[in-house]
UniProtKB/TrEMBL annotation:
Residue ranges annotated for the HTH araC/xylS-type domain, each copy included: 199-297
Protein name in the entry: AraC-like DNA-binding protein
PROSITE patterns: HTH_ARAC_FAMILY_1 (PS00041), HTH_ARAC_FAMILY_2 (PS01124)
Protein origin, superkingdom: Bacteria
């Protein structure tokens, strides 16, 4: 698979909860930071979302917002409008005036990722993905949003299941959206895949995780000098080439340990370590616990 597909396969995302959000008049609410990746799809009207330390962001009908990790934020009919602090829930919510047709409607909720690798892999993704309707509606992203919005307002049998699956598709579409990774501040895997030279090296690593890669070999694949490649990779991906390789190998190992059924020798060989001992040393150094202890912890959780 390609690098993004590899990452998503290990994350095994699914929509943990989704709920309709409606509002009328002047309103505002606040939420604390939480680990679950959050999303908001605006179905009608407009609202302002404000994250701590950032300028208010206006969102309108058709906009999609994805937060791989959800910081504290405020949502309201206008920027700076103070509101109550709410806890995430699965129940539909109505803000502002309780009577009359809502002026604002959205679908909000969170995704659940495979917990063994979520912190590591989420670090490779942008902190925030905002896809305005004006940009997203012209391609597959727009068609997916349109179908999801249509399903949300329907009463067809199987609606809940369809919404769940379409949200998962929307997550993948958002991550590979053409606008992701072009922001100079969004270092990570997606930014690396937007760079043709780095993309060649990343594809090579993911195509053969067992290979005894060196920076020089990857630089040659990228068509760059060793020093230029190392500096560019670190800047754009956010970590050094060998650090990325080690992180990816151990992410694959953590997934295998969490699922169980494979020996340490087999896992070590699958990800390119000479022995189970060498693998165990690297795993303990990187994760602070031996592979066997990690596997037991995952089984007992």
């Amino acid at each position: 698979m390609d690098p993004l597909s590899d990452i998503i396969a290990l994350l095994r995302p699914h929509a943990a909860l989704s709920k309709p959000i409606t509002a009328r008049g002047r309103w505002g609410v606040r939420y604390q930071a939480h680990d679950a990746p959050g999303f908001t799809l605006i179905l009608a009207g407009q609202a302002w979302v404000t994250f701590e330390g950032s300028a208010p962001l206006q969102m309108a009908q058709g906009d999609f917002l994805l937060m791989p990790t959800t910081p504290a934020f405020a949502l309201g009919s206008e920027p700076g409008l103070a509101g109550p602090l709410l806890e995430p829930s699965k129940e539909a919510v109505r803000h502002g005036e309780q009577d009359g047709e809502p002026e604002f409607a959205a679908l909000g909720g969170s995704f659940s990722f495979e917990r063994a690798n979520a912190p590591l892999l989420l670090a490779l993704l942008p902190g925030l993905i905002h896809i305005p309707a004006a940009q997203g509606m012209t391609d597959r992203m727009g068609r997916t949003i349109h179908l999801l919005a249509e399903e949300c307002t329907s009463s067809h049998p199987g609606k809940d299941l369809i919404v769940q699956r379409m949200l998962e598709v929307l997550l993948v579409e958002a991550l590979r959206w053409q606008g992701v990774g072009h922001d100079a501040a969004s270092a990570g895997l997606l930014a690396g895949l937007r760079d043709p030279a780095l993309a060649r090296a990343l594809h090579a690593v993911h195509a053969d995780i067992r290979a005894r890669w060196t920076v020089a070999q990857l630089a040659k694949i990228a068509g760059m000098s060793r020093s230029a490649f190392s500096a560019r990779f670190s800047l754009i991906v956010g970590r050094a080439p060998m650090e990325y390789l080690t992180s990816w190998r151990l992410a694959v190992a953590k997934d295998a340990l969490a699922r169980g059924g494979e020996s340490l020798d087999r896992i070590a060989d699958d990800i390119g370590y000479e022995s189970a001992s060498a693998f165990s040393t690297a795993f303990r150094k990187h994760n602070g616990t031996p592979p066997g202890s990690f596997a037991r912890m995952m089984r007992d959780a």
